[in-house]
Amino acid sequence: MNEVIKLINNHRSLRKFSEEKLSQEEIENLVGAAQSASTSSYVQAYSIIGVTDEEKKKQLREISTQSYVEHNGHLFVFVVDFYRNNELAKKFDQSISYDKTENLIVGVVDASLAAQNMAIAAESMGLGMCYIGSLRNDVNKVKEILDLPEATFPLFGMVVGHPTTKGSQKERLPFKEIYHENTYQRMEQVESIIEEYDQSVSEYYKERTNGQRDDKWSEQVVKTLMKKQRLDVDSFLKSQGFLGQ
Amino acid sequence: MNEVIKLINNHRSLRKFSEEKLSQEEIENLVGAAQSASTSSYVQAYSIIGVTDEEKKKQLREISTQSYVEHNGHLFVFVVDFYRNNELAKKFDQSISYDKTENLIVGVVDASLAAQNMAIAAESMGLGMCYIGSLRNDVNKVKEILDLPEATFPLFGMVVGHPTTKGSQKERLPFKEIYHENTYQRMEQVESIIEEYDQSVSEYYKERTNGQRDDKWSEQVVKTLMKKQRLDVDSFLKSQGFLGQ
């Protein structure tokens, strides 16, 4: 296993950083790495907004409810972006389609590939990072704070900074569960693998909390996914010109 | 700039590979790297299907229209996957929600972050890779070929193999165009940057084709996005239980 794969496998989400800011060179290196990712048909359907304004960071923290969003680290917001392409089309007296779920998916994939490149670049520089999906708790407000135009969608944030903690890793599903060969394997084929995994995750929590917590992965994700949340994302997307009929 | 960032920045999509197959160890390293990416609330809402069956590869090539999908490289298909979580919920006599665009986005982001980790891992091993978004040309057929259950969506493929060509890179949008500070910058603020970029892309094509081709980035993406394509993705997603009302 080479050094790059070791770095990738050593990923952990960090939420505490020192006060030391990123330099302009670091920011440009991170954004450059993000941009080097593949992009569907060269459309580059995303933008990255760096938020340094203290008042804006405070407002975004209130949306995400995560205090570290406000207090330290450089905050990048990844935005699905068809506004740029749409404005260019107007110059040619044309109009483009971005109103199908297919188009939205192209933008979400483009932005995500770019973000993951940035995540690895950050960790390779000795920096720590964490995704902030919880910016989607109030996408209308994020639009207002960042003055986003139509045909854009704030997908997630990422904080990047100089770490002050080591963080920990959560074990992933076993290879045999995530990787299928030629045909999708149904639940009855993998049930025992998930049971073993549940045991292993449960032991991790017990150890980390001195026996206070021992929930299994299955229980935890079912609880998470039972919650109906961010129900305004659909109507927001429609108001931005996505998901038309 | 460190070695990892140089590797990331040196990315190029490769479509020709030797006949040499990936070893089981290589496949496990690639999937392990993919799984190390962040996952929204630990849900791990994706699966990866490795396609080695020649008949299935042929059928998938017919969908994507890209001959290299059939002929060489290891073909991974990244699938947005709430089936696993949904089956687990049934065991607890519960049901989960995955019928909002928000849920679909969680799965698309999870799968994309994992895939980009795999892409970098592959390149770090001296392998080449290329995304295959064109599997979405016929998602119903992909479902049939891979026997996908409800609550899943085939997002894209990725071929990985031993390269026989060097490939080339397409210049990305300038830093000042993709990166905004605190507030989204409208078209009138960046028009001249895009014009310069268009010139630069145009020169690249001229050089590569001995003057035969000189189209600008703007024209190219507008043409791409004017096409209405993959119009059945919406109805497929609905039939799989996504995008409910």
UniProtKB/TrEMBL annotation, chains A, B:
User: What is the annotated role of this protein in its UniProt record?
Assistant: Reduces FMN, organic nitro compounds and disulfide DTNB. Involved in maintenance of the cellular redox state and the disulfide stress response.
List, alphabetically, the Pfam families matched. Nitroreductase (PF00881)
> Which family, according to the similarity comment?
Belongs to the flavin oxidoreductase frp family.
Cofactor(s) the record lists: FMN
Which keywords are on file for this protein?
Flavoprotein, FMN, NADP, Oxidoreductase
Instruction: Please report the organism this UniProt entry assigns to the protein.
Output: Jeotgalicoccus meleagridis
Highest taxon of source:
Bacteria
Name of this chain's protein? NADPH-dependent oxidoreductase
GO MF annotation list: oxidoreductase activity
